[in-house]
Design brief:
With 249 residues, the chain is of the alpha/beta class. It is built from eleven helices and eight strands. Helix 1 packs parallel to helix 2 and helix 5 packs across helix 7. The longest helix is centred in the C-terminal third of the chain and has 19 residues. The two termini are 18 Å apart. The chain binds 2-phosphoglycolic acid. The site of 2-phosphoglycolic acid has 13 residues, from strand 8.
């Protein structure tokens, strides 16, 4: 059994005080909940103070991105070691917004996953096809390439630390959720590919999250799919009552 993971990706939203207020108010929703993991990914400036509030709350801290290099002359970058130092246990890697708006290739994603694992953080690796890919019948090709190239250096013993988030790009922030059939099919494909690459045991323990317009109304149905082990939530994670409903689905 894989423990479900519900992760909030705030993207470029919330100041430090707004972030602290959110996590303080979030505590009542996670109190006594042990059968799922809640992860909060605030923007960089809020990581340290939010991490302090999250201590012993049962929620985990994630960054939304990390540098591909260990340290040195990389102006504006933030290293894995710095993230661990402020309490991050998870880090989102290769979100489609990073891929499309900031030119992150599978090679860069691969280097970042390596950094995260090297420093003991669980990478939440985002993959997914665009509408154009889907309409051209290339969904599985794209996913396969993102996995093979993105996880290129991930050893079998690191798979236990890795999390995959399947996020069809056309479903992100659009209000268009993949149908449970579409999501279920993609998740089953990912699981099968991971079995081929890493073996049944490790692939069977890999959490595969769904992301793309998850909300309190659709979370139950999505989570009922056998290969969906959690959700990466953007827009609906910004309001504490709404995210609270998702977490307690
Ligand atoms: P959304 O974003 O829930 O607003 O669609 C999901 C994501 O980008 O991770």
């Amino acid at each position: 059994m894989i423990k479900p993971i519900i992760a909030a990706n705030w993207k470029m939203n919330k100041t430090v005080s707004e972030a602290i207020d959110f996590v303080n108010r979030m505590k009542k929703f996670v109190l006594g909940i042990n059968d799922r993991e809640v992860v909060i990914a605030p923007p960089f400036p809020a990581l340290y103070p939010v991490g302090a509030v999250l201590k012993d709350s049962g929620m985990s801290l994630a960054a939304q991105n990390l540098g591909a290099y260990k340290e040195g002359a990389y102006t504006g970058e933030i290293s894995a070691r710095m993230l661990v130092d402020v309490g991050c246990t998870h880090v989102i890697v290769g979100h489609s917004e990073r891929r499309t708006l900031f030119g992150e290739s599978n090679e860069i994603v691969n280097a970042k996953i390596g950094m995260a694992l090297q420093f003991g953080m669980r990478p939440i690796v985002c993959i997914g096809e665009t509408l154009q890919d889907r309409e051209a019948g290339k969904t599985f090709d794209v996913i396969e390439r993102q996995i093979k190239e993105g996880l290129n250096q991930v050893a079998v013993y690191d798979i236990g630390q890795t999390i995959i988030a399947y996020e069809p790009v056309w479903a992100i922030g659009t209000g268009k959720t993949a149908t449970t059939g579409q999501a279920g099919e993609a998740h089953a494909f990912i699981r099968q590919l991971m079995e081929e690459l890493y073996g049944k045991g490790p692939a069977g323990r890999l959490p595969i999250l769904y992301g793309g317009s998850v909300n309190p109304e659709n979370i139950g149905k999505l989570m009922a799919q056998p290969d969906i082990n959690g959700a990466l939530v953007g827009g609906a994670s910004l309001d504490v009552e709404t995210f609270g409903k998702i977490v307690t689905f």
